[in-house]
Structure formats: C-alpha cells, structure tokens
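Thread: Newbie trying to understand structure tokens

Hi all, I'm a second-year student working on a class project, and my supervisor (Dr. K.) asked me to get a predicted structure for one chain before our next meeting. I've only ever worked with sequences, so writing a 3D structure as a token string is new to me. If someone could post the tokens and maybe explain what I'm looking at, I'd be very grateful. Here's the chain:
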Amino acid sequence: FLDEQAIAQAVKEGRVVATSGPFVRFYANSDDNGPGSELSTTDTVTLHIEVQTPDWFDVRRVELYENGTLIREWTDEADEVLLDAGYNLVAEHDVAPDQDSWYAVVALGDDDLAPVFTPVEIAPIQLEDVVSGALSGLGGLFATLLEPGVPVPRTFPTHPYAVTNPIWVDADASGDW
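---
Reply by user tm_fold:
Sure, no problem. This is what the structure looks like when written as tokens:
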C-alpha cells in the first residue's frame, strides 16, 4: 500500500533516493540520520554507505560528495567492493567538516537495463539536421556540398544510476546554516 501523502512529505523533506535500479542506503552515525537529516555536531561523522543490485546488473562506481566536491570514490577493483550477496559496496567514511556541509552519494553502472527500461529517445534536433535543413533549401552549389551525414544515434541506453538527497552537517553545532 502506497501512502501518497507520506511519499509527498518525504520528497518535501529531502528523504529520498532517485534510482534507475540500484538500492542505496546512506546514513550518518546511525540509521536515524539518512538523506534529508540534519546533524548538529562538532565531532567526526561516520558516513555509512551500502549499495545493492540484483544479479543481472552491477554498480561499478560509487562516489561520495561533500558540498558538491568529490571526496571519495570506490570502484569495482577496490577491496571494499563486495560482489556477493547482492552487495556492490559496504563502506564507512569518516568526515570532520570544518564548516557546515552536506554529503551525497552517487552510484553508477555500465550495464544496459533493457528490456526493463526502454532506451531514452533524444529529441531529433541535432546539428546535422539543422545544417542539412538550412543548406538543402538553397539549391545549386550548396545542394552538391551535402553528403549524407554519419548516422547519429537517436536513442541511448539506460544505465544503473542512483543519487541520494544530502545529509546536512552543522559542523559548529550553532543551529545556523
């Protein structure tokens, strides 16, 4: 049973993870401090990240951001990545922010999620179309300059991707952001 009001409230409060498949758990210090949470502390904060996928696709890269800057990344070659029991990553990362900061996680994969997701169609206005259309109406010499262009793909696959809302850390515990 889906409670539409509860879902709308979670979105308003920033307590969501957008995903095309990977399941991401992200919290600071305890399960109670997930995306959308605000922590007021002058201590070190332990960020806990878990990424899970089904057997038919994988996440190959997980990124941790502080205030929009990449501060840590895990790849499928790293020791921290587990490729059994459905986990792609189980990791903790300690941060000691010297200013009020926010933290978010991005998980990415290379697999094509078809047929679960259909390819994304890109609007057919490409530079090739604009130039061909503009010059073809001129005729004469310009018409002979136009050769059939290299085919440009109009659809692109959907890849595993997830991004969390941020966890906010009030580094001086002042209550002001």
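A couple of things are worth pointing out once you decode it. The chain has a mean pLDDT of 84. The radius of gyration is 23 Å. Feel free to ask follow-ups in this thread.
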